[in-house]
Amino acid sequence: MRVLGVDPGLTRCGVGVVEGVPGRPLTMLGVGVVRTPVDADLGHRLVAVEQGVEQWLDEHRPECVAVERVFSQHNVRTVMGTAQASAVAMLCAARRGIPVALHTPSEVKAAVTGTGRADKAQVGAMVTRLLRLDAPPRPADAADALALAICHIWRAPAQNRLQQAVALHTSKGRTA
Fold it and tell me: What is the pLDDT of residues 55-81, one digit of tens each?
């Protein structure tokens, strides 16, 4: 499975592509950050995020896009920018018919470090180890994007089985 992880943000939108299957070594195919100028108006910044995500989709052709689920923060302005960048990434994937999965920060941290309370340094260290990199990707947004992709590769099979079981149970309930 090839997954594009997106750590949404208006100033720095982390992107990373990981390929692999659960239980086998994973491979990083690319990592980076889509940057937008802080002084540009919102519309232009969103277009820049869109263009950046589109480039990554064109270049890497992922089977799925994993985006960090926006969570409530105290800074409403930051949440709004994150939500807007997140929506752009989801739109780009949906336009191409690529499935989108949302993962919370604590789900991602737990998947790659074993605890949902890990800090940025711990996530970066584990991403480095899991992908056999020489150094943690910088900035942290790039490492977070790779962590999202890893989380999805490891969690998707279990999530798919759960969805199939629910669908089967629901369809049996209708025919009974």
Answer: 999 999 999 999 999 876 677 777 888
Q: How far apart are CA 123 and CA 112, in angstroms?
A: 7
Largest CA distance in the chain: 60
The model carries a pTM of 0.89
Q: How far apart are the first and last CA of the chain?
A: 37
Nearest Cα residue to 127 out of 90, 104, 1, 141: 141
Single out the residue of 97, 96, 6 nearest to residue 49, CA to CA: 6
154 touches 25 (CB < 8 A) = no
Q: Which residues contact 111 (CB under 8 A, 6 or more apart)?
A: 103, 147, 150, 151, 154, 155
Q: What token pair was written down for 117?
A: 């309370």
Q: How does 135-160 read in b/e, with b if 16+ C-beta sit within 10 Å?
A: ebbeebbbbbbbbbbbbbbbbbeeee
Residues carrying an active site annotation: 7, 68, 141
Q: Which of 78, 105, 80, 86 lies closest to 34 in space, CA to CA?
A: 86
